[in-house]
Amino acid sequence: MKKFDDALRGYAAAILQRDDWVCRYCGLDGKQWPNWLYFSEDHLLPPGHPARDDQRFRVAACRFCNEAANRTQWDVEGKSPEELVTQKRPVVLARREEYRRYFDEHVGKGIDGQEG
Asked: What is the mean pLDDT of residues 74-90?
């Protein structure tokens, strides 16, 4: 069997399958095409943390949610994976809403203000 080195088929596949291909932040269903193409895993702990690569501290996330709050400093010490997701979710969802408003104002109506 071919060994894959990408997230969807390789190194993150076990995490994505464990989380049933559902983004832990926004609920996007990765079992639907083409949603599957937009999936990745999110490390709940920062680079350098000794437990960062522990599977318990990695979760399924769509690419947007994975990247939405990358520059945010999180309080991670002593928290369970579920507590870390709960801490991050409101920030990620607020960022999604900011992008939605921008889309509605600038993209969905086109540059000239016309629909489509």
From this structure: 96
